[in-house]
Amino acid sequence: MTRKSGPRAEGATPHRGKAATQKRILESAARLFVARGYERTTIADVAKGAGVSRATVFWHFGDKTGLFREAFALLLVPFRESVDRDLQHLSPEKQLEQRVASYLDFVHRHHEIVMGFLGWTVESPVLRTEVVDALMKLHHRYARALAEPLRDLLPTDQDPNAVARGILSMLHGNLLLGLFDPSETAEDGRRASAAAVLALVRRK
């Protein structure tokens, strides 16, 4: 029997339909991987969340590992966008302030995702390698972004890259401290400590 083709919405194409299906699958997978972890997330659950069949998930992504890899890449997009924001229109002082503020605000808004990243690093050796490699690349990318305004703010005898890594280490440390004490008072204290360090840098 030949299937009759019905009217297609204006502008709709098979390619767009495939992309939309993949997007739904990846968004479902990302939510579940963050909430449940890798091992406790099943393809059936991902398929149900995306409104497709298990076969469709396998057809688009091959296997669970491939699905995780693509879902993880999707989760990293907003982190990369935050790091890659063009701040050249701001003064060096404001650039540095905005870089640090964007880190703190992003971690606060996407706390569940960040916790998912940390959980995956201890869940399995396979995930650990992949996740840590990607996060370290993002770390170095962010350190380079921090170093840009520091070149104009620091004395010539100080290494802006070293200071950028120091600031980033402080931010990472505050992130981990937030696991032990996520209270609003503690969060305000960590933000104040970051502001105090930046004030010292700006006075140099």
Task: Describe the protein's architecture and organization.
The chain is an all-alpha fold and 204 residues long. The chain folds into 2 domains: 15-68, Homeodomain-like (Arc Repressor Mutant, subunit A, Orthogonal Bundle), CATH 1.10.10; 84-202, Tetracycline Repressor, domain 2. 78% of the residues lie in helices and 0% in strands. α8 (160-180) packs antiparallel against α9. The radius of gyration is 21 Å and the shape is elongated. It starts with 13 loop residues before the first helix and ends with a helix. The model is unreliable at 1-12 (pLDDT under 50).
- Count of helical segments? 9
> What profile does the largest beta sheet have?
none
CATH class (first level) name of the largest domain: Mainly Alpha
Number of domains: 2
Mean of residue pLDDT? 87
| Proportion of helical residues | over 70%
SSE topology:
Blueprint (H helix, E strand, L loop, with lengths): L13 H23 L6 H8 L3 H8 L2 H20 L8 H18 L1 H13 L1 H29 L6 H21 L3 H19 L2
Quick synopsis:
The chain has helices at 14-36, 43-50, 54-61, 64-83, 92-109, 111-123, 125-153, 160-180, 184-202. With 204 residues, it is mainly alpha-helical.
